[in-house]
């Protein structure tokens, strides 16, 4: 590990998406950057593996990426030269046991017509809200997503100056669930909209907060932005980023066990390793792992002001985990409801198992109470149908992501039995909707739950795949922040705006702040929320 015997301008802890984005920007800015990770591999949640049979590539964590090819960092770093993305025509599909299916696609007229088969009134509501949503998403939601959040008072004053700003604020001040229930009359339409509003679908993430500062409801009406699939598997995004980082002169060192961040003269000056060595950083140290490991584990509570300790103690993690079931198949799932709408088979994200709003509430309450949900309802999708490179020729992959409590009290032996029995239940639900999902169609299956993924990625504390809850108290102007109380020590992980999932946002924003603090002239043009919101007023 000769690279650990040298000193650097900056050291970045954690080689997931954020470490790679941050490292690429600052290495291209001319800084000598060391990127370290505890693991032998890199990419964090960008994880694709052949876990069932050779040639079947399964994305164990991140699968669907929200409008990645439109992000500033994807374009600044010229990642399209190294990574391909698929943008499916049909984004959300929901089949029902009565033989009908509702499909939301990229085309407005097609989507409105699909909704009208369930409710003409709901179709008209969608059409009316779509125009507003497209404008708000393009001019407010996306620009704010990749810029340091403004203080609440300044943000609201700027938004209040324009019609679309006022309409956006009005929606963000309401509970997303209330908005959906008020706008739509048809139960199936309401269900699919909650799936679209919530971050991953069939559970009520970000829909039960009293307010929604990020405006997630607005996004549900927008058809221009949406989820995409990384060709060949999600790890290819990590590969493209690592190639970019190395080409820019960065150094990556895996299998680094860090004891602590070195503090000298009241500043962060490097990292102390478990083997006793110290690696120096003359200008900054940045962490992209979870906030508690960063600030309590690597820095220490004694280094934090009392007010900041309180903020850390109040930081909340998502109170549920993911039960993942990954399948290698002869045939991609084919819905009985394809007779009603054949495009349901090709929708990127499926909502399966919940037929009514009450189904959703019951399952949510079970998870909140720490119980295995009685109703089996999950998110899925036809990955290899949309991207044939993820399976051998003529074969297929799919997945089921089911919300689950951590189930800490269950012993290991019982848990292994539970995993197999619950996987059987998921397959029974598949078969109820997709007649071809029989045992004969299944070549192999692999179960991957919080018990497994927190061992690989301990920063997903308590099984939290987002590394921080998406509640109103922790997003936008309430987020954790990029600068820590210790000079030269930065936080660029998922606890910072815009939060968890694959966005590259926290690290992109942190790159601009670090460059500014170091007196560097960025080679890119960092996005600025104040400029974006002021432009709204001028345009009006």
Question: What keywords describe this structure?
Answer:
seven-stranded mixed beta sheet, 18 helices, 36% helix, single chain, 540 residues
End-to-end CA span: 58 Å
Basic shape: globular
Low-confidence stretches: none
**SS summary, helix count:** 18
Number of strands: 19
Mean pLDDT across the residues is 93
Quaternary state of this entry equals: single chain
Describe the model.
This protein is of the alpha/beta class and 540 residues long. It has helices spanning 17-28, 72-76, 108-116, 120-145, 152-159, 163-172, 176-183, 187-197, 216-220, 235-247, 291-299, 306-313, 357-368, 383-386, 412-433, 450-456, 505-517, 529-539; strands spanning 8-13, 33-36, 48-49, 58-59, 64-66, 85-86, 90-95, 101-105, 227-230, 251-253, 258-264, 267-273, 278-287, 321-329, 349-352, 378-381, 396-404, 442-449, 489-491. The longest helix is centred in the N-terminal third of the chain and has 26 residues, at 120-145. It is globular and about 70 Å long. It starts with 7 loop residues before the first strand and ends with a helix. The model has no long low-confidence stretch (mean pLDDT 93).
């Amino acid at each position: 590990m000769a690279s650990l015997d040298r000193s650097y301008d900056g050291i970045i802890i954690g080689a997931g998406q954020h470490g790679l984005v941050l490292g690429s920007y600052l290495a291209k800015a001319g800084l000598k950057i060391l990127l370290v990770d505890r693991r032998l591999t890199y990419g964090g949640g960008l994880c694709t593996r052949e876990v069932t049979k050779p040639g079947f590539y399964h994305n164990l964590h991140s699968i669907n990426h929200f409008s990645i090819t439109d992000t500033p960092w994807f374009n600044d770093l010229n990642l399209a030269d190294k990574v391909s993305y698929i943008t499916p025509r049909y984004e959300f599909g929901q089949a029902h046991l009565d033989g009908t299916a509702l499909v939301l696609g990229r085309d407005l007229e097609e989507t409105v017509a699909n909704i009208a088969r369930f409710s003409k009134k709901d179709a008209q509501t969608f059409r009316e809200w779509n125009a507003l949503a497209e404008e708000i998403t393009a001019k407010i939601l996306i620009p704010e997503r990749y810029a340091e959040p403004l203080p609440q008072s300044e943000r609201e004053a700027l938004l209040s100056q324009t019609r679309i700003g006022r309409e956006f604020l009005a929606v963000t001040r309401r509970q997303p669930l209330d908005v959906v229930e008020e706008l739509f009359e048809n139960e199936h339409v309401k269900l699919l909209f909650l799936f679209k509003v919530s971050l991953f679908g069939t559970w009520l993430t970000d829909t039960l907060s009293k307010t929604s500062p990020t405006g997630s409801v607005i996004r549900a009406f927008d058809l221009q932005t949406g989820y995409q699939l990384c060709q060949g598997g999600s790890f290819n995004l990590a590969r493209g980023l690592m190639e970019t980082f190395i080409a820019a002169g960065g150094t990556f060192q895996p299998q680094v066990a860090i004891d602590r961040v070195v503090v000298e003269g009241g500043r962060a000056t490097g990292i102390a390793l478990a083997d006793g060595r110290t690696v120096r950083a003359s200008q900054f140290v940045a962490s992209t792992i979870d906030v508690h490991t960063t600030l309590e584990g690597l820095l220490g509570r004694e280094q934090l002001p009392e007010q900041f300790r309180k903020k850390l103690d109040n930081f909340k993690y998502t109170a549920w985990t993911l039960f993942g079931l990954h399948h290698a198949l002869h045939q991609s799932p084919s819905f009985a409801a394809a007779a009603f709408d054949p495009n349901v088979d090709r929708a990127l994200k499926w909502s399966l198992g919940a037929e009514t709003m009450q189904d959703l509430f019951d399952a949510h309450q079970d998870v909140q109470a720490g119980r295995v949900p009685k109703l089996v309802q999950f998110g899925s999708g036809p990955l290899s149908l949309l991207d044939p490179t993820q399976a051998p020729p003529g074969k297929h992959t799919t997945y089921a992501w089911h919300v689950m409590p951590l189930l800490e009290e269950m012993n290991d032996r019982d848990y292994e039995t539970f995993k197999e029995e619950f996987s059987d239940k998921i397959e029974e639900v598949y078969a109820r909707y997709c007649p071809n999902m029989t045992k004969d169609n299944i070549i192999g299956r692999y179960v991957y739950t919080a018990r497994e993924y927190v061992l690989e990625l301990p920063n997903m504390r308590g099984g939290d795949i987002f590394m921080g809850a998406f509640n109103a108290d922790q997003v936008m102007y309430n987020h954790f922040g990029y600068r820590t109380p210790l000079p030269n020590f930065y936080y660029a992980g998922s606890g910072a705006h815009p939060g968890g999932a694959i966005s590259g946002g926290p690290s992109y924003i942190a790159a601009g702040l670090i460059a500014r603090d170091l007196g560097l002239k960025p080679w890119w043009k960092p996005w600025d929320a104040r400029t974006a919101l002021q432009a709204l007023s001028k345009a009006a």
